[in-house]
Design brief:
disordered C terminus, 29% helix, alpha/beta, 4 helices, 121 residues
Length: 121
């Protein structure tokens, strides 16, 4: 990411940690919004007091970027069942507007016998 992302994503590199309480997630999104719209985005306290929707405004700002951007959602909590794919949506306010990289700490494998460190024969 350090090597190629700045040239491949000139619109910006944005990272949020999904494994935080809701108010911290909101603060992370607000921070990105302030970077994108510095003159239009008040402090987080004023933003909250005016009952503005940070995810909605951030989504708009990301969609309005003229250049490709990378949005990383790290540490997505494990979910299971049919709703699992939609679980990250509130974390990603600009689906379709940015390149998305989602990471999880879930231990999964698509290779039979692979335990993450060595391969059983």
């Amino acid at each position: 990411m350090h090597r190629y992302a700045p040239s491949e994503y000139p619109g910006g590199l944005f990272w949020v940690n999904a494994e935080v309480p809701e108010e911290r997630l909101e603060a992370q999104m607000h921070g990105i919004l302030r970077l994108l719209r510095p003159g239009e985005t008040p402090s987080l306290e004023a933003f909250r007091a005016s009952k503005r929707d940070v995810a909605q405004e951030l989504g708009q700002a990301l969609h309005e970027l003229d250049q490709r951007a990378l949005y990383v959602v790290d540490n997505v909590p494990e979910t299971s069942g049919r709703g699992a794919a939609g679980a990250a949506r509130p974390l990603v306010p600009a689906v379709g507007g940015v390149t998305l990289l989602v990471t999880s700490r879930a231990h999964q494998s698509v290779i039979t016998g692979w335990d993450g460190w060595s391969c059983a024969s």
